[in-house]
Every structure is written in C-alpha cells, then in structure tokens.
Design goal:
Layout (H helix, E strand, L loop, with lengths): L3 H5 L1 H17 L11 H15 L6 E2 L2 E2 L6 H13 L3 H27 L2 H12 L2 H7 L5 H20 L4 H15 L4 H14 L8 H24 L2 H16 L12 H8 L5 H6 L9 H19 L11 H13 L4 H28 L6 H16 L6 H26 L8 H8 L5 E5 L4 H6 L3 E6 L21 E3 L3 H10 L5 E6 L6 H7 L4 E5 L2 E5 L1
C-alpha cells in the first residue's frame, strides 16, 4: 500500500479513511441478532412506533416506556422505512453517526489548530478507540447523543466568529436534548465555561442567544408538553425517576457504581493509543491555552459524572472528543524517533491481541471459521509489510487504521457466529417460530427481541429481576395484564396459576434461575426441553 501520496496530501488521507470506515462498518451490519437488553429494547420500541404510527408515546412490548425522549426511536423507525424491519435497518444510521462524528472531529481540530496533520491524527485516534466503536455497533442513544454534542461544540466555535451559526448550534443542542434529555448540556456547558474562563472573557447573552434558546425550547419541548398533557404524572417521572434518581440514587436502574469507576475503566477502553500518552507523559505540554481548555473540559466532565451515582461507561462518551483533540495536538509534535517506538509497540500490541483472540477461541470453543480469524492476520501483514512510506508517523497512523478496520470485520463474523454468546435471543426466536405455540412465557427476564423476531404473545413473569420489572403506572387500561405477571404480588401468583396453560405455549427461563415450586409443577407438563446457551426452553 503506497501511502506516500496520502502523506503529502492529508485531505486525501481523510477521504480515504472516511470511505474505508463507512464501507467496513456497513459490511454485514445486519448479520447478527439484536443483543439484549439495550439494543433489543430500542429496536423493539421503534418497531412498535413504526407499526402503530404513534410517535408520541413510546411503548415497549405494549407498555408505556418514557425513559428517553424519542429521537433515537424516530431515527431507527426511519431505518425500518428504508430497509425494512430488520437489524440492518435498526443499525444503519449508527454508521452514518460515526461518519458525521469523524468529519466533525476533523473540522473541529482544523478550527482550533489549523493543522491538517493534527486533524488527521485526531480522526485516526477517534476511529480506533474501542469505546467509540462499541457505541456505533450497538443500538442505543449514546452514539447519537455523542454526535450532537460534537456538532454543538463545532457550531459554537463557529458561532463565536460568525453569528449566522447560532441556529445550527442551538439545533444541535435541541437534537441532543430530544435524544437523551439534559445530558447533552453538561459537556457543552462545561466546555463553554472553561473556554470563557481561560480566555478571560465575560459571558454575554445576545439577541441571537435569546432567539436560539426560544428555538431550542420550541423544537425539543413540544414532545414533552404533548406527553405531559396526556398524562401529567410523566412530569414527576421525568424529574424524579429519570433525572434525580439517576444522579443521586445508588439503586437507580441497577447502575450504582463507586466514585472511581471511570478513573479505572475509562483508560482500559482507550487502548491501544492511550499508551502513547503514558510513554510521553513528561513531554506533555498543557500550558498552551487551547490544550489547557481541552484537558480541563475532559477532566471536569469525568469528575462530574464520577459524582453522579448511576454510571455506565457510555455516559462519558462525549468527553472523549476533548481528550482526543488534546492528545492529537500533543502527539503530532513528537519526533520521528518517538513515532518509530510507537509503531513498534503498535505492531506488538496487535500481534499479542491476535494471539490472545486465537487462544480464547480454542480454549472456550468459540464458533468461528478459520478464514475469518485470518482477517486479523491479513491486517497485521498489510500494516507491517504493505505500508510504503518513509515517515514513521504515517506508518503508525495507517497501522492503527488498517488493524482497526480488520478488527471491525472480524468482530462482525464473530458476533454472527456466536449470537447466544453475545446475548442475542435470535436463535431462540427462530426455533420458537418453527413451533405452533401462540404464547411465550419468559421467566424473570425481559426479552424485547422475542417480540421483535416473533408475532407471538410474549408473557413476562417478573419475580424480582430488575430487567423484568415494568412501570405500569401510565397504563390507562388493563390490557397489559395479558402479557405481564408481577409475581412479587400474591394475587398475581394466584392469577398465573389460574391462567397458566401448557397447550400452544412455551416456557423460557435462564439456567441459573431458581424456579418456584408452583411454576415447576406447571412446566412439568411440557414434553420437551432444549438448551440455548444460558437459556432453557420448555415446549410440547
């Protein structure tokens, strides 16, 4: 691979990377089943919206679900309209989101540092970050929220010099708020305050800001008003359950984590390039004003989210933009000797990763054909012997990009061949579809993908697991009782005993579950039992 031309034409390098990334991320995108519980949840809610035409009230398996604003469901439903109700349709716009993110990272870097080499490096580092890749291979709100945060930062920087960009800045905030509520404001406001502080400028509220704020509330507030108008209880639910509890309650949504959670786990999600920082820590110059702003913004975001009680690694995804921009402008100034060391480390890292994956496949008997494993080896060989360029900087950059592309293709085949291992219920649903049963009992676990893949009545039996507890306070009738039993209440146990029927039904339960005796008595009537990974299916 002759990269000499690309080295002298950085813009061509960016186009090359963007095209390669888009093609690879779309390749076989719908070949593996929806994973539980998050991806299947978003896909199923969007499916119900698309099928019913009700785009105001999100419903999950027939029960109201107001955890998030609906933009992610709208985007997913658009994917269904274009590609059909399938995995590719559900995930397509995630690849578009990554493409937009990479373009914005490049443009933001150019805006801040006006150096194409720095901007190219920021694109390569961003794409090769495992946490970023994980967010765009699994349908959740996080990839879309991250896109709108980067968009808001870029257009705000443009707005500082040219007031005509005020609309795009506030539109970005509105889209983010319509995706995940006030979370979009945290990284953007922190960046703005840090920018004003270090530039020693006062915050001024202009007519453009007044118009922007007005547009923001109208464009994203209409849905909240529509929902609250139909059901006033939703307002308290938004402010108390979804906002206050997520920030200050350890028990909220089973996501309570200690203060040090991000400090420990975030660096692990930034391999392999995080090592570059550790190797050159003494040479890091954070006195340059814009670098100082970026580093301070990243640190403050991590600190604030560390204070919040509920934590998931994806919550701090928007902070990576600031870290990567800081790292890029630091690394690009290092000597060729440093880049030679980095490249040798990188080759060793990917060789070790290849060997580790190979051993894991053999030991754990993971299903995967040998040619697919060789994709990783092919990427290694190209990056070691196929890059013809005298610059170690560009050798490193393309080693990083090529091997990351190989990993994306490899992971596609890995997930396709091991759907049960990645927590997809698609193989179970496929088997259930071959049976004549009408109802599917699922014990103590919520499986939205069973609704997604089958046209059967999925009956959830909640007995304490946090995933299977449904919020039914917004239901205006008792229709939900046809597919939900709350076995933590005695009268519901009595109702189940009365209703339970093994004719034209199947019963699905995880192996580790301790099934109550009254249910054991009922399922003893099933004549067949089949194992699917951690699941057991009883059927006639």
């Amino acid at each position: 691979m002759d990269t000499k031309f690309l080295a002298t034409n950085t813009k061509s390098s960016v186009y090359f990377i963007l095209l390669a990334v888009f093609i690879v991320t779309l390749f076989q995108l719908g070949s593996w089943g929806l994973t539980e519980t998050s991806e299947a949840r978003y896909a199923q809610i969007a499916k119900e919206m698309f099928e019913t035409g009700d785009y105001i009230h999100p419903r999950k398996m027939g029960i109201s679900h107001y955890h998030k604003p609906p933009l992610t469901y709208y985007i997913t439903a658009l994917g269904y309209a274009i590609f059909g109700i399938n995995e590719f349709g559900a995930r397509f716009f995630l690849s578009i989101a990554l493409l937009v993110q990479l373009i914005l990272i490049y443009k933001t870097s150019m805006l801040l540092f006006n150096d194409r080499k720095t901007s190219l490096l920021s694109v390569a580092l961003y794409f090769s970050t495992p946490l970023i890749l994980a967010s765009i291979r699994n349908l959740t709100t996080d990839a879309y929220l991250n896109t709108f945060v980067i968009m808001a930062v870029y257009f705000w920087l443009k707005y500082l010099d040219d007031k005509k960009f005020f609309f795009l800045f506030y539109l970005s905030l509105s889209l983010g708020f319509f995706t995940k509520g006030p979370l979009v404001l945290i990284p953007v406001i922190i960046f703005q305050l840090t920018w004003f502080y270090y530039n020693k400028k006062k915050i001024r509220f202009s007519l453009y800001d007044f118009l922007g704020v007005l547009f923001f509330f109208i464009s994203c507030g209409w849905w909240y008003l529509a929902v609250i108008k139909d059901n006033p209880m939703v307002l308290d639910y938004f402010t108390s359950n979804q906002l206050y509890q997520r920030m200050f309650s350890n028990d909220a949504f089973n996501r309570g984590k200690p203060f040090w959670y991000y400090i420990v786990f975030l660096p692990l999600s930034l391999f392999p390039w995080i090592v570059y920082i550790f190797l050159t820590l003494k040479k890091t110059d954070s006195t340059v004003l814009k670098r100082k702003i970026l580093l301070a913004t990243f640190s403050l975001i991590i600190f604030l989210f560390s204070i919040f009680k509920t934590k998931l690694i994806f919550y701090v995804l928007p902070s990576l933009t600031f870290l990567i921009l800081f790292v890029s402008t630091h690394l690009v100034q290092l000597s060729e000797n440093h880049w030679k060391k980095f490249t040798l480390y990188l080759r060793g890292y990917f060789i070790l990763l290849f060997v580790t994956i190979l051993i894991a496949i053999l030991i754990h008997k993971i299903e995967l054909d040998l040619p697919y494993v060789l994709i990783l080896l092919f990427g290694l060989l190209i990056s070691i012997f196929g890059i013809k360029n005298e610059s170690w900087f560009y050798k490193n950059l393309y080693t990083l990009v090529i091997n990351t592309l190989a990993l994306v293709v490899f992971s596609t085949f890995l997930m396709k061949s091991n759907e049960l291992l990645i927590n997809s219920a698609k193989p179970i649903a496929t088997f259930v579809n071959s049976l004549k049963s009408k109802d599917v009992y699922v014990y103590n676990y919520l499986l939205p993908s069973m609704s997604f893949y089958t046209n059967k009545n999925i009956i959830t039996l909640n007995n304490g697991n946090y995933t299977s507890k449904r919020e039914v306070q917004f239901e205006q009738n008792l229709d939900y009782l046809k597919h939900y039993y709350n076995l933590e209440e005695k009268n519901e146990i009595t109702r189940l005993k009365s209703d339970f029927n093994t004719q034209n039904t199947v019963f699905l339960v995880r192996k580790k579950e301790e099934i109550p005796e009254y249910i054991k008595t009922e399922i003893a009537s099933y004549t067949n039992k089949k194992y699917f990974g951690k699941w057991v299916l009883y059927y006639n």
